[in-house]
Amino acid sequence: xxxxxxxxxxxxxxxxxxxxxxxxxxxxxxxxxxxxxxxxxxxxxxxxxxxxxxxxxxxxxxxxxxxxxxxxxxxxxxxxxxxxxxxxxxxxxxxxxxxxxxxxxxx
Length: 107
Hints:
Layout: H1 2-6, H2 11-23, H3 35-45, E1 54-57, H4 86-99, E2 103-106
Parallel strand pairs: 1-2
Helix pairs in contact: 2-3
């Protein structure tokens, strides 16, 4: 959802997207997954006021694996241009903590 906001969508647009996901049960069948409780709380409290449950933090794209399913097009031949240095990464981690997120998944 944060990506939608950063992409320039206003809160009303994001709310409409969340409502459509909930209404049409997009992304699941049968029992509603727990993440949808998060969407509902975001509806009630407002976009950007509910901290993310978890954040995926990509440490580098210069991975030593070459997985065919990798969406990031990572691999040993990938340039490190654009990767954060240690200071930038620590600053980003502190910003994530300040959001109220309890879990960071490092990939």
